[in-house]
Amino acid sequence: MDCIFCNGKDQNIKLLGINICEACMEDMCETRVSNERYDYYKEMIKRILKNYMSERLSLNPVE
Question: Which element (helix H / strand E) includes 18?
Fold first, then answer.
């Protein structure tokens, strides 16, 4: 699977069912709050978490 950030096919890390390449994960971890990419990464992580949680909430626990 491709990286969600750069569409790269390098070795990927799976985070909540989403593929992120090692280079993007490293960049995300090292990005300072003052960097313009910080807001981009923050919004993408919000979307990933929202999607992950909505999938879990829509499951019927009775089944």
Answer: strand 18-21
List beta partners, residue 20: 13
Burial label for 20, CB within 10 Å (0-12, 13-18, 19+), is buried
Task: Return the residue matching tokens 């960049």.
Answer: 27
**Sign (positive/negative) of CA torsion 34, 40, 43, 47?**
negative
Q: The pTM is what?
A: 0.71
Tell me: pLDDT of 60 over 90: no
Angle at 49 between CA 48 and CA 53, to 5 degrees: 120
